Amino acid sequence: MSQWVGNLGSLHQYRNVPYVERAMDGTVACLLCGTGWMNPNARVMHFHGRQHSKNYNRIKEIELKQERERERLKKLEELETRAILCFTYYDPRIAALGLKAWRDIVTVGLYHYLRGGELADADLLMNKYEKMESLSLLELAILKSKAVDGVMFQSTYEIRQQQALDPNFNATAYLRDQRVISGCHVIVPSVAAFL
Questions:
Q1: Quick one: residue 125, left, alpha or beta (phi over 0 = left, psi -120 to 50 = alpha)?
Q2: Which residue in 13, 88, 111, 191 has the fewest CB atoms around it within 10 Å?
Q3: Is it the case that residue 187 has pLDDT exceeding 80?
C-alpha cells in the first residue's frame, strides 16, 4: 500500500485503498485523517500533504508492531508445543535415571533443544544416560551377587555392620576387591556392545 502515498490523486487510484471512501460525484474522504468530502484539488493537496503522510506512517508502524507481536506469539506457541511434546515423551525416561546429576544433564539437553537445538542431540544424550543406567545396574547386580554370596554375608546390610563389629574390616576395600574378583570390568563392556 506504500505505493499509494505519493501517487493518490486521480479518482480511480482509490479503488482498493481501504482508508479512502469514494462518492459517485467524484469526491473522496480520507478515513485515515478524518477529513470530510474533498473535491479533486483538495484531495491531491491532502494526499500529498505532510499530515496525511504522518498519519499513514503512524498506521504502518502500528501494523508493523502488530505483525511482530503475532510472530512473537506464534514462536511462543511453537515453543510451548515443543515443550509439551518433549517433556511428555522424556519425563518418564528422565525419572528412571538413578543419579540426580544424570537427570539434570539430560534436562539441560532438552532445554537446549527447546531453545532451538536439534532433537537428535537431546535424544542421543538421553540414550547415552539410559545405557549408562542399565550398565551401572548390571554392574551393581554382579557385584552384589559376588559380595553377598550367602557364605560370608547374607545382605549388604551385614557388610556395613561388619565394619562396626570388626575395626580391621574395611567395607569399601572389601567391595572393591569383590568388584575385581566378580569380573565386572570384563562382563560390563562385553554386554555394552549389545545395548
A1: alpha
A2: 88
A3: yes
- Band of the pLDDT at 164, cuts 50, 70, 90? confident
Single pTM value for the model: 0.51
- Lookup: cell for 82: 515443543
Helices (H), 32-183: 40-47, 50-95, 100-114, 119-147, 156-165, 171-182
For 111, the grid coordinates are 532445554
pLDDT score at 161: 87
CA-to-CA distance for 178 and 140, rounded, in angstroms? Answer: 11
Distances from the Cα of 142 to the Cα of 39, 136, 178, angstroms: 97, 10, 10
Distance CA 55, CA 46 (A): 12
User: CB of 120 within 8 A of CB of 85?
Assistant: no
Each domain of the chain, given as residue ranges in start order, spans 1-72
Per-residue b/e over 99-124, b at no fewer than 16 CB within 10 Å?
Answer: eeebbebbbebbeebbeeeeeeebee
CA 105, CA 27: separation in Å to the nearest integer? Answer: 70
Q: How confident is the model at residue 12 (pLDDT cuts 50, 70, 90)?
A: low
What are 29's strand-pairing partners?
21
Is the pLDDT score of 111 beyond 50?
yes
Collapse the DSSP code of 21 into the 3-class scheme (helix H, G, I; strand E, B; otherwise coil) and give the result.
strand
- Residue 5 pLDDT greater than 50, yes or no: no
